Amino acid sequence: MKTPPLKRSNFTPSDVPIPMTGSSAQSGSMPTLEQPSASSYEQIQREALLRFEGAQLSFIDGVWVNESVKGRDLKYYVFDWDDNVLCMPTRIHMERLSSDGKWVPHLCSTAAYSVIRKDERHYRFPQNKREMAFVEFQDKRTPLGGGTFMQDLDLALDDIASGKKQPPPSFATFRKTLIEGRLFAIVTARGHEENTLRAGVQRFIDRVLTPVEREVMLINLRGYDYCFDHVQTFPSQSKVLQHYLSLCHYHAITSPAFGARIAEEAPEVQTSEARKQFAIQDFIDHLVRILDRTGMAALRLPISIGFSDDDRHNVAAVRDYIEKVLVRQFPTVKFCIYDTSDGSGAHKMMISGQLELPLE
Length: 360
Hints:
With 360 residues, the protein is an alpha/beta fold. The protein is 39% helix and 17% strand.
């Protein structure tokens, strides 16, 4: 591509000689997940640059960099996965008390489980063993299931692509988070290892983001690397993306690795709600270290952290934790919780300050 003869500039669409129209969706629209038509990288890049009207873009080391990220507010996100980002077909193996007083096998979805999980009178784990109920939520393959996270993820995306199901409430926000290159944490009650969840996010990027959106994401990611890590020579696109994903957190709170960490650092943490609180605290501590290391904290930009979950019990527990613990530790941070339990939207609860997420 013929690049403008400049090092840095306030970018406007007139800097692009041939504006492109057609296949790419607007940033606020819902994704179609359709495979894009064949386009040259030059065309993709031109369309991507049109998304940065008024931004300060630089052409450094042969690639475009968005320097305007240094003036962005610092928004970070914590996402529950199931029925919040994606509706996975993974099943939970429960037992239900039948009308004749016998316990019978009962398969249920994650959405149904979030409703019945406190009803111990009528539902229980097989042999009272949680691991038997959630066998499909592990990386290990067994005769009853397991080891199918990527397959289930693809099925969930297929359902959205075909129009069979609508995207869950936080799907679009997660997509936007990736495009903007903002740091996030996945905090889920699943039992997968970190690399499994990270691979799932990579698959989400590959299948959901259009080529133009991926290019916008890379321009933003290089901007963060340039402005805050002072990177002057940029690696390949895949390495830029992998560096970004390595800065995010993936906490499956019933995984063996997470369980081992809890046993060592916080053995008193037992419930699912408490484990999610531990994971959220860990992510915030991670963010603080990054802000200090890069000098971003000294900029005194607004800091916001949003949490979304479809389970009312988790929402209530996290709200209580924010009010009693996190607000006192981080009085200048804006916390906002989104209850997505109704499946069609989100009920916003502002704890401190104001964070707007496009969930309503």
